[in-house]
Specification:
This protein is α+β, with helices and mostly antiparallel strands. It contains eight helices and 16 strands. It has four domains: 93 residues, no CATH class; 75 residues, no CATH class; 57 residues, no CATH class; 65 residues, no CATH class.
Length: 329
Amino acid sequence: MLPPLVVLWLAAPVAEAEYHEEIAHWAAERGFRPLAPESSPQLPYDAAAALQIESLLEDAKTTAPGSASVFERLDRLLAEHPELPQAGWLLAERYALEARELAREGADRARELTLHSSELEGARATAFGAEPGPVPSAVPERQPLQLLGARPRDEVCIDGSPLSPGRHLAPGRHHVQLLRARTRVWAGWVDVGSPARVVLPDPTPACHELDLLDTDLTSPAPTPAPGVLCERWAVASPDDSGGLRLSMCQGSRCGAWQVQSHGPPTPGATAEAPAAERDGLPAWVTWGALGVGVAVSGALVLWRTGAFEPASHSTEFVFTGPTAAALRF
């Protein structure tokens, strides 16, 4: 059996079935059998967990002072579900609620929690009729973020905001999400220290869909994203004329497009054309002569049967209209 070759199809999925035969033939000529890349599992969204966290946050607003059980349950649930896109904002709300409760006692812990909350979601405006939260006595210095592990085209969101060049972070827990080709690849909590350094894991298996998906259809060859783990793979896509173009790739480099015709040849066309060439005449001469011969033979038969003689008793009507032309019927 031929070794497998992962072929990335870059077009509408419904059109791929039309080109299976051409892709298989192209791969077999190079000693491979084509396979579609496996789909990497996307991050789930646990709606039940999100609802439970929001319910606990509502309970925390009315919890009797000194009751820490609701905050402990929030910490556990949030730690277990970093895949929730809103996890950073939920943790900020949890910090703000406990800070408001501790502020009544004048605890330093309240100022620390307020600081953590503002780092996760930014400064809050005081709600109408509510007491302002505690102001931190000392704000830790933010440092330039050093991000490692992401591919050049990946998008990174920290605490719900896209990472911008020159981003500074304060020490503490932050929510980080990694996106590739608009698909969330990883999400987790990161404890940032000093210096502010974050190392992201890449959970994408080699030759899976997320490893190859961020590939551009450029000319004269496709352009994969830097950091592709797959050692050998291929790209297939229909061209503007309805044919098929393919390219062999290694890692993050692909060869020039190779255009293949689409569909089987017309029956009989390949057999007749070489015969005409062997006689030293173009194919169109042979087919043209055959057409003329058929027309002449047909006319001769009709003449011998009297088809071209006028009828002996036909009646002729002539109509002369406003113009000089006459219509006969």
